[in-house]
Amino acid sequence: MWWIIIFLHLAAAIFTAGNIHPDEYFQILEMGWYRAGLASGPEALTWEYASQIRSGLAPWVASRVMLALPGFSPGTITFVLRLLASALGCITLYRLWKSWQLDQSPVKKFAQIFFVFTWFLPLQHARFSSESLSGAFFFIPFALIVGESTSKRTWMWLISGLLLGLSFQFRYQAGFLILGFLSWLLIRRRPGYLAIALLTSGLSVSLGIGAVADHWLYGQWTLTPWNFFRVNLIEGKAAEFGTSPWWDYFRLLFLNLSLPPWSLALMIVAVAGVFSRRGEPLAWSIVPFFVVHSLIGHKELRFLYPLASAFPLALALGAESGASWLRPSIRIATGKITIALSIFLLTIFTLKPVRLLELANNKLERLARTEALCVYSEVAPAFFRHGLPTDFLRIRSVRYFVLPHGQDAQKCRKIFYRRGFSRDGEVLSRFPGARLMHRTFPEWMTRFNVNGWMSRAEDVELWELPSELSPSS
Length: 473
Known about the structure:
- There is one protein chain.
- The protein has helices spanning 2-15, 23-35, 47-51, 57-68, 74-99, 108-117, 120-125, 130-146, 149-152, 155-170, 175-189, 193-218, 224-234, 248-256, 262-276, 281-295, 311-322, 328-350, 357-368, 424-430; strands spanning 373-378, 384-385, 388-389, 398-403, 413-419, 435-439, 460-464.
- By secondary structure, it is an alpha/beta fold.
- The strands form two sheets. Strands 4-1-5-7-6 form a five-stranded mixed sheet, with helices on both faces. It has a two-stranded antiparallel sheet with strand order 2-3.
- Helix 6 packs antiparallel against helix 17 and helix 15 (262-276) packs across helix 17.
- It is globular and about 75 Å long.
């Protein structure tokens, strides 16, 4: 089983290039790139940097990888970061499995299915994002304490406290997970005074690490968690990005957890699993986290990503508690449907880039290793993402031009980078002799442009232009 999980996570690290949310670039990679001394200045950074509301820990880790790989392409650096995040995800699943002693548990057969076939785990774990990192750094010490590793090794309380604090530093909203878990620990588990002292010491050290990382990022001492709370909730900045009713996370989960309406069945089973063990730490941690996020007006599905690693465990517990209610034939059919859908979704979301435009960027990186490139584009340079410059993604050996401006480049291979689908004739009439090098979607797919989906797709084309052609004229 574990070899399959490791293989799927490795595949996700290799293939799922790109970002699920812009924050993966702008709040981590861009900030890390700047503070590593590899960008000219902070002018291109987003408003969060000036407001000093983002933790410096994830950008610091990213910057260490960038500095350790001088001269390597952005694609290589992001692959290494995905590999690190995927390794953390595998460790998290392993520790959760061991902490619940699932090898000897009656839920083992259900756990094996869900730990392997929960389709979004390799994808989520491969993201070097605050959500993924925070979830890993919460559930690893969670599993250590629940599995009583701390009772055999007293110093593990110190390590657990440190990791819990780092979970908070990676994403401040994880404080609600930590608060719920520590409440269970003090009320139900009741560890000794030495354990509490060591746990508190670890938490205190992590707060110091976070403060130093924030000073590194902003160049001055600042209380970043307070800034985050003040700007987003008191000043209402988060609400400017949209608000929704308290129940909207149920709608988002229904649409995204699996293929509807099967996603509804998974939601019911997971909720049943949590509440079947409502006196245990899983419920004490997840419920307050989910309730608080439901009460906050601005909602995004990614805010729940820190819970991803616990989802297969909740499903296993729920399936075990409800299995006796179903006839054997129905249980077998349900299992087969779940596995079939999961394999289908795993294949799609583990073996393709998160953003298809990264395929074109990867091709440019490969070409730039052996020859000088001049890349022409319209509206914005090729290294822009979501309408904003991402200096980290700029290939240093490539010269970028935005048409119709820019001087004509000499002694380089000229590439026209076009966003959006076009017919071959449109480009050839503008640039006679141009040769198509890359296209996200083949031209024949225009015949199946139902509801105009291609206008919303991330299609990127690369055309090689004749060396004597002057694109800027």
